[in-house]
Amino acid sequence: MPFLLRNLTLVPGVEESALRPLAAAKLGVRESEITALTLVRKGVDARKKGAIKLVYTVQVTLKDESRVRPSGDLSRVEAGAPLRFPRLASAERIVIVGMGPAGLFAALRLAEYGLTARVIERGRDVDRRASDVSRFWRLGELCEQSNVQFGEGGAGTFSDGKLTTRVKDPNCGWVLQRLVDFGAPPEILYAAKPHIGTDRLRAVVRGIRERLIETGFRIGFESRLTGIGIAQGTVQSIVVNDADEEPCDSLVLAPGHSARDTYALLNELGVTLEQKPFAVGLRVEHPQALINEIQYGRNAHPALPPAEYAQTYNNEATGRAAYSFCMCPGGVVVAAASEAGGVVVNGMSGYRRNGPYANSALVATVGPADFGGHSPLAGVEFQRELERRAFVAGGESYRAPAQSLLDFIGRGGGRILSSYRPGVTEYDLASLLPMPVVATLREGIEHFDRRMRGFISAEATLTAVETRTSAPLRILRGADLQSLSHRGLYPTGEGAGYAGGIMSAALDGIRVADAIAARIAGS
Hints:
Elements: E1 3-10, H1 19-27, E2 34-45, E3 53-62, E4 74-76, E5 94-97, H2 101-112, E6 118-120, H3 126-139, H4 172-181, H5 198-214, E7 218-220, E8 225-231, E9 234-240, E10 244-247, E11 250-253, H6 260-269, E12 273-275, E13 278-287, H7 288-296, E14 312-315, E15 320-328, E16 332-335, E17 345-348, E18 357-366, H8 368-371, H9 378-393, E19 400-404, H10 405-408, E20 424-426, H11 435-451, E21 461-466, E22 473-475, E23 489-491, H12 502-522
Parallel strand pairs: 5-6, 5-11, 6-7, 11-23, 19-20
Antiparallel strand pairs: 1-3, 1-4, 2-3, 8-9, 9-10, 12-22, 13-18, 13-21, 14-15, 15-18, 16-17, 19-21
Helix pairs in contact: 2-5, 2-12
């Protein structure tokens, strides 16, 4: 049985082949006694700027296990129960709406049981989608059905491709391995902060689609859900593009957090929805070299990866929080609108994260008390109003309103340097956002600078407006993962209000697929 050996350290620049003799020395055995060594985890310890180190956990197999005894950093690998997928034969008519992480991984999991489904996506395949997005960024010509929010792969396709999650789920390893199977970098299996990058992620998404087609799934692009047939509170059929109706027994609804027309449809049908808190704000951009210096110190080793950060601030008096979100090292700020007449900003990075700028959402929490209404759709309207204001402020051409960080916090000065396309227009961003949000962001920025000296910089630029941090409502479901009001409807993923990123959305899609398979097996 192999062992798990923790806290092996190397200085940046040293080849990882040095881990084998290091492990042998720590175990007190000859290097030849190690028959196998594989990486389990790799992270950066930058707590001491002058002594940054890489920290590893490895799995080690020995010729003679009796030579060592588990203690301290050494433990035996506890073999978990292998995942088993009974093959199920069923005439169940399953439809999956949405080809983001939740929808795609629900489909992959159903395939493990030998089940198939009809998968529809309102947007286009990832290659045509990339072309549509590029045209928008260059010319300001928005395609409302194929953009950063809509299309194969979901909103995460145009992001940093982060795979971190606070969710403790045994399926995390299964998700990571499947991503590698479809072309993701193998290091996501052991990186402490795994990411794929927007460039690699597109190829992975394409590979998943091809596998699903091979196993019998029917894929439909430019296929928008426009109706759901209901009888006695149970899903009977779906309507696509206001024209084609087809029968459906189980509807896996993975719409993404920007499918506002889908939310309106559900509300009209009486599906149980509730308002949900989320966050809005700005996107902050710094030179990546500055973030590297803040996090690693001066003269950091060039082998270190582009530095990241994650900051939070809580105002106990107001109950509001400010935090950084979706930080993109070496990335760009992108235009992420999905509706005409609105400006939305987001961020993305390639796998190598080798751009000159770092960016992150800088947002503050908002809740039902801010939305100005009791409708489940009030949060949607709250988002929409901010996006329309930003559109007007930018010049009604999808240029983003922007301001130096120093100006925003009242210190004056600073330059506007932004990677955002199709361009920015200087504007007083405080006039766009609700004052409680502005106050919380300003307090948060001061707090972040105390923890990251240099965060407040003349080189930092803010662009507006960041509104699509998470779903503005939740589609309520029960313990069986079906809608509380409509049998056969399985809300899932970020758009349903049950996830917050690629990994957690994929895990939620898996849970729904497992629930459907369990019900079929039980029946």
